[in-house]
């Protein structure tokens, strides 16, 4: 029993099935509360049923990635249609797999902010119908807070800790102080790193590359970079003169676009064909973005240390979001955490990307603390744009922290 609770989310599939069965019996005996988590903030329709200890009874995820790869990006109305087509099936699947009836749920937790309006709307409308029909309490979830706290499903990490969230839609550095208390140190001033990588991958026509056809832009760039020489192209790391923790990626993308234009001209090839040096460009862009992310994170750590925002004993940096799956970025961040004596924690890639499990887990954390729980009668709205934590980025800027030299020597 103790062992099962100590490793939630990490159990192997076959073991998991047995554990689930065994847990279902225990659930009824110990009346552990159950949460249904629902995620539809972007292009993944996810659901999970989890018990109060963090044990996943069932999970289901319908990804729209293949459709959006073909259209070259997410078209909100297409995402909305696909969520509508799949949400009932995905939710029924987790209820069926877990053997849980709607009336046995202690709460439904659903992402209500931030995200694409049309996508959030589908999850919320479905959830509100569900909770009104079954008279279930409702827990509205902040998508970025859920990403930030997923790590606590894997291991019992106490607050406070530093968290870097890097995805297709977001880029944040924050101190997590409690389940509903975050200090925002910095964020992207233009686009998110995943968005940049996706756009560069599209400009490089990597969807046509035989090795990359089914990969997201970020995955394609990571794969090609392994065979590239990053020194063949040089892109300037952004915001070198800004001594804060904000990010910028649009300028890097423009530099890359100019290099691609020049190389196409020099090689006499048309836009739409794959460049022979796509690997080298991928390696150079990956390194530039890794270096930018590492530097801002390094400054965030030094700021937290100067202000006593992290514990003296075993301070941690948690990295999550789809872009956090990138091994090269993780290695760059490990160099930073080793130099500053922090532990680096990355949830497994499956939990870094959008999923229903992280939403259910955030619901469980709130249910346990009795915070943010609403009645099925309460009015709830979705918020496409929502702040993440209390913004103290001005204080970070005022601290004017210069970084000590740190070599990012990363092997693939
Ligand atoms: O967190 P996520 O699933 O969705 C949101 O954006 O909320 O992140 C998706 C993003 C995409 O931009 C994708 O290109 C990027 O994560 N990504 C990666 C990798 N895998 C996914 N970026 C870099 N390296 C990867 N291995
Ligand atoms: Zn996300």
From TrEMBL:
GO CC, any one term: mitochondrion
Residue intervals of the Gcp-like domain: 56-361
Cofactor: a divalent metal cation
Keywords from the UniProt entry: Acyltransferase, Metal-binding, Mitochondrion, Transferase, Transit peptide, tRNA processing
Biological process (GO), any one: tRNA threonylcarbamoyladenosine modification
Function: Required for the formation of a threonylcarbamoyl group on adenosine at position 37 (t(6)A37) in mitochondrial tRNAs that read codons beginning with adenine. Probably involved in the transfer of the threonylcarbamoyl moiety of threonylcarbamoyl-AMP (TC-AMP) to the N6 group of A37. Involved in mitochondrial genome maintenance.
The protein, known as: N(6)-L-threonylcarbamoyladenine synthase
UniProt organism field: Albula goreensis
């Amino acid at each position: 029993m103790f062992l099962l609770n100590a490793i939630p989310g990490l159990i192997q599939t076959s073991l998991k099935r047995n554990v689930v069965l065994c847990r279902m019996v225990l659930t009824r005996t110990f009346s552990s509360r159950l949460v249904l988590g629902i995620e539809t903030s972007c292009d993944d329709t996810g659901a999970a049923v989890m018990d109060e200890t963090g044990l996943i009874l069932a999970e289901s995820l319908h990804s729209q990635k293949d459709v959006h790869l073909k259209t070259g990006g997410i078209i909100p109305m297409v995402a909305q249609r696909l969520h509508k087509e799949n949400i009932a099936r995905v939710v029924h699947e987790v209820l069926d797999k877990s053997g849980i009836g709607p009336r046995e749920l202690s709460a439904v937790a659903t992402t209500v902010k931030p995200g694409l309006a049309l996508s959030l709307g589908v999850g919320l409308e479905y959830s509100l119908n569900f909770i009104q029909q079954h008279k279930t309490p409702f827990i509205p979830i902040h998508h970025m807070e859920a990403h930030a706290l997923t790590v606590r499903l894997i291991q019992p990490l106490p607050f406070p800790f530093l968290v870097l969230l890097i995805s297709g839609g977001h880029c944040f550095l924050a101190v997590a102080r409690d389940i509903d208390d975050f200090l925002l140190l910095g964020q992207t001033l233009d686009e998110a790193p995943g968005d940049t990588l996706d756009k560069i991958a599209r400009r490089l026509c990597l969807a046509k590359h035989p090795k990359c056809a089914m990969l997201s832009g970020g995955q394609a760039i990571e794969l090609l970079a392994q065979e590239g020489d990053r020194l063949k192209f040089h892109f300037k790391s952004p915001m070198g003169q800004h001594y804060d923790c904000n990010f910028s990626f649009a300028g890097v993308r423009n530099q890359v676009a100019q290099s691609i234009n020049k190389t196409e001209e020099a090689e006499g090839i048309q836009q739409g064909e794959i460049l022979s040096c796509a690997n080298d460009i991928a390696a150079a862009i990956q390194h530039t973005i890794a270096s930018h992310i590492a530097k801002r994170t390094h400054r965030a750590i030094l700021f937290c240390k100067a202000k006593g925002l992290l514990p003296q004993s075993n301070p941690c940096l948690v990295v999550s979001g789809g872009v956090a799956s990138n091994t090269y970025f993780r290695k760059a961040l490990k160099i930073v955490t080793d130099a500053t004596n922090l532990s680096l924690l990355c949830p497994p890639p499956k939990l870094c990307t959008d999923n229903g499990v992280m939403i259910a887990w955030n619901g469980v954390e709130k249910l346990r603390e009795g915070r943010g729980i609403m009645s099925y009668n309460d009015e709830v709205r979705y918020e496409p744009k929502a702040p993440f934590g209390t913004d103290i980025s001005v204080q970070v800027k005022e601290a004017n922290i210069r970084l000590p030299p740190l070599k990012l020597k990363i092997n693939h």
